[in-house]
Amino acid sequence: MTEEKIGLIQLVSEQTMQNLLPVLALKPEKLYHLSTPKTASRSPHIVEAARQAGVEVQVENVRMSEMPSIAETSRAVERIVGQCGEEGLLPVVNFTGGTKLMSIGAYEAALRKQVASVYVDTDHQALHDGNTSAELRRVLHGDFSFTPLQRALTVNAIAVANGRERVTGGRDWRPYVPLARHLFENAAEEQETWRALHGPGGLCPGGREPRRAEDWLELISRPIQLPAKVVELATACGIVRTDGISGYLPDTSKADLERCARDTGRHASGYYERVRPLQFSIAFLTGGWWEVMVADGADRSGQFRDLRWSVNVGERAGGYDAEDDIVAVDGVQIVYISCKRGGMKARLVPLLDELDNRARAIGGNFTRRFLAVCNAPTGQTMTNLRRRAKELNGIQIITGGDLENPAVFERHQR
C-alpha cells in the first residue's frame, strides 16, 4: 500500500495468521521474526504463504529463550528498531503473537521508541493501530480492514501458513449437480441407488469393495440395478456407462486392470490408479452426491471464495493424504465442511472431534467448521450432536432441510 520500505518486526506464534496478514497488508522489505525454540519452525511457513499470496520478502530470524521475559523481548525489539534505521527501513512492530509477556515487551519497546505498532484482530477482521506513532495510519492510507487482503488469501496460502505443504485443486462439482439434485429431491430413488451398491444384494454389499484386479473386472461386467432416471443422469456425467437399459461401472480402466490381473493383482504397477475411478463412482452414488449438493449450496450462498470439492491437503514428499470434502475461504479464514449421508446409525458425535482436529490442522484456530448431514438423526442423538458441536467452539450443523436456505452459511456472531 506504500512505496516506503518497511521492516516488519513480528512475534512468531504457533498460530500464524496474525503474522501472515500484516505481511500482506504492509508488503515489507524485510521481516524480523522473534521466535522461541518451539515456534521457530513456523517462520518458513509464514514466508512461503506470503510468497504464494504474491508477496516476496526476506527474513531475519532472531532466536529468543524458551520463555522470553518482558525485558528480553523489549531489548530485542529495540535492537531491531535501531537496525531498521541503519538499513533505511521504517520499523513496524506487530505485537500480536508470541506469549503475553512477549507482546507486552514488544509494545513497550514500540512505545519507548515511538515507532509504528499494530495488533491483528482476526475475529473482527481488522488491524488496530497501537497508537505508538502516526506512521501506521499513513502507510495504510487509513484503511485497517482486511478487505484489500482477501483476493491474495487462497486455500493454498492459509494452509501453507499452517504448515501444510500441498493442496490440490479438487474436482469441478458443477457437472454432477443434476444427478446430485435428483438424488437429493427423490429420497426413494436415492435409497434404491444406495441398496443397488451397498445393500445385501448390491454390487459391494456392506461397502466391501474388491481387493484384486480380477474382482474389479467382474464388477465392471455386472449391471447395477439403478432407477432409469439415475442411469440417465449418471451416464451424462460419466459416473456410469449404459447399454441403453442398465447401468454399469465405467470401463475406461478395463484394459489396464486386465494387465494388472495378468501381472500381480493388486500389487501390480498402477493398480490403485486404475481402480480409483471405479471407487469414485461407487462413493458418489452412495453418498458423495451430497458433497456436491453442499458445495453447490455453499457456492450459491455467495459467502465463500476459492471453494474446492474433493481435495487432498498434506505433504509433497509422498505419503497418503486423506481426502477432504469441501474447503473454501471466508474473509481470511479457512472454511472446512465435512459431509455425511447420515442416518440413525451414523457415527456422528465422535466424528465432530475428528472434524475439529482436521480443520484446525489446515486452517489453524480461526477455521470455520461445518458438519453437513443429509439424513440427520432425531431425538437424543441429534441433541447430543448439537451439544458437542457447541462445546467445540461452535461447529455449525447443516441438515438436508437447511440446505436450500442460503443464510445457513452466514457467519454467526459469537
Question: What does this protein structure show overall?
Answer:
By secondary structure, the protein is an alpha/beta fold. The mean pLDDT is 91. It is elongated. A hairpin with a 2-residue loop joins β11 (323-330) and β12 (333-342). The strands form three sheets. It has a six-stranded mixed β-sheet with strand order 3-2-1-4-5-6, with helices on both faces. It has a six-stranded mixed β-sheet with strand order 7-10-11-12-13-14, sandwiched between helices. A two-stranded antiparallel sheet has the order 8-9. The longest helix has 31 residues, at 271-301. α2 runs antiparallel to α6 (155-161) and α3 packs across α4 (100-113). It folds into three domains: 6-152, Hypothetical protein VC1899 like domain (Restriction endonuclease-like) (Rossmann fold, 3-Layer(aba) Sandwich), CATH 3.40.50.10770; 174-288, no CATH class; 290-409, Trna Endonuclease, Chain: A, domain 1 (3-Layer(aba) Sandwich), CATH 3.40.1350.10. The protein has helices at 17-26, 42-52, 70-86, 100-113, 135-139, 155-161, 177-185, 187-198, 213-220, 228-236, 254-262, 271-301, 349-363, 379-391, and strands at residues 6-11, 30-35, 58-63, 90-94, 116-121, 126-129, 166-167, 241-242, 247-248, 305-314, 323-330, 333-342, 368-375, 396-399. The chain has 14 helices and 14 strands.
